[in-house]
Write a structure and sequence with these properties.
The chain has helices at 12-23, 45-55, 70-76, 81-90, 126-135, 155-162, 201-208, 267-282, 299-310, and strands at residues 6-9, 28-30, 37-41, 64-66, 95-100, 117-121, 139-140, 168-171, 182-185, 192-195, 213-214, 236-237, 248-251, 259-260, 288-290. The protein has 313 residues and is an alpha/beta fold. It has an 11-stranded mixed sheet with strand order 1-8-2-3-7-4-6-5-9-10-11, sandwiched between helices. A 4-stranded parallel sheet has the order 12-15-13-14, covered by helices on one side. Helix 1 packs across helix 5 (126-135). The longest helix is centred in the C-terminal third of the chain and has 16 residues, at 267-282. The chain starts with 5 loop residues before the first strand and ends with a helix. Bound molecules: threonylcarbamoyladenylate (TXA) and magnesium ion. Magnesium ion (MG) binds next to loops. Residues 142-143, 151 line the site of magnesium ion (MG).
């Protein structure tokens, strides 16, 4: 284990240093438009294994492979028409596509956890893009939090959660979207929503021209979608209209609280604030009451994360 952990600015020098560390098989936390990722060279077995160790992941759960553009996707996955439609609508951006893995791909088998599919994403964030181009190869990156805890949307969250288990953190301020990518399964002709996220279901359906199914456990699932996840230290109580005397409150719209996700009731702003505010309330070390969030657009992904944060552990 290292004894020092470096914070690098997202300038040319910082990007170059981060790329060198990744190529040496080290772990580097990087900003994306969704959340900070815990990055490693996706073709290096030892580096990928170090991700699981640093996060304390209980099992070898497959990781998202980040690539600079859709052209590189074809090196790792069997491409199809649904992938073309979604990639041209939402890449670069907060969308991950699960596609059949090409048998000749050079990816570490640990990245895909031995499954015949691979999750690919082209991030939009400028620092992530510049890092991918400097590395000139795929970066495996789960969210940069200890397994089961709240996802990080700032470099400070990463440092607090993972500390010296990462060689460096590339710091480029808060993540603008604030929620993880939407994951769509494209291993059959019927696209399936595996995880709600930064691109809402209605926008996915508009790009495909038809409705999609939501994974219910009978189809392939994203194995990381455990019931308890994103968990603060304290308990979480949903759909609260006011806090009990011992609670802190996460408000939304007219229902105010200790912090308010969006006083104006804007779901995009609420998504961007969600994990940061959960981190802040968690630091008060009291149970957290959460105001109701409308279940449409980005509200679906916000409610998904809140249900997992509130789930029995
Ligand atoms: O926004 C994001 O997606 C962030 C940033 C860093 O890109 N990453 C992220 O990764 O959220 P992670 O590991 O926290 O979540 C990845 C999810 C897990 O639920 C995992 O099971 C699922 O993707 N997944 C990965 N590969 C898969 C595959 N081949 N088939 C089905 N699900 C897969
Ligand atoms: Mg995660």
């Amino acid at each position: 284990m290292r004894t020092t952990q470096l914070t690098l600015p997202a300038d040319e020098n910082g990007i170059t240093q981060a790329a060198v560390l990744l190529k040496q098989g080290k772990l580097v936390a990087l900003p994306t438009e969704t959340v900070y990722g815990l990055g490693a060279d996706a073709c290096n077995d030892n580096a990928v294994a170090a991700i699981f160790e640093a996060k304390g992941r209980p099992s070898f759960n497959p990781l998202i492979v980040h690539i600079p553009d859709a052209a590189m996707a074809r090196e790792y996955a069997e491409w199809n028409d649904n992938a073309s439609a979604l990639a041209s609508a939402f890449w670069p951006g907060p969308l991950t596509l699960v596609l059949p893995l090409r048998p000749d791909s050079s990816l570490s088998k640990l990245v895909t956890a031995g499954q015949p599919s691979v999750a690919l994403r082209v991030p939009k964030h400028s620092a992530a893009q510049r890092l991918l181009r400097a590395v000139d190869g795929p970066i495996a990156a789960p969210s940069a939090n200890p397994s089961g805890r709240i996802s990080p949307t700032t470099a400070a969250h990463v440092a607090a959660g993972l500390g010296k288990r990462v060689a460096a953190i590339l710091d480029d301020g808060p993540c603008p979207v604030g929620l993880e990518s939407t994951i769509i399964g494209l291993t059959t002709n019927e696209p399936i929503l595996l995880r709600a996220g930064g691109v809402s279901q209605d926008r996915i359906e508009a790009a495909l021209g038809h409705a999609i199914e939501i994974a219910d456990g009978s189809q392939i699932v994203a194995p990381g979608q455990l019931a308890s996840h994103y968990a603060p230290e304290g308990t979480v109580r949903l759909n609260a209209t006011k806090p009990y005397p011992n609670e802190v409150m996460l408000g939304f719209g007219a229902i105010d609280g200790t912090l308010n996700l969006s006083p104006a009731g804007d779901l995009t702003q609420a998504a961007a604030n969600l994990f940061n505010y959960l981190h802040q309330l968690d630091a008060i070390k009291k149970p957290i009451a959460v105001a109701p969030i409308p279940d449409h657009g980005l509200g679906q992904a916000i409610n998904d994360r809140l249900r997992r944060a509130a789930a029995p552990r």
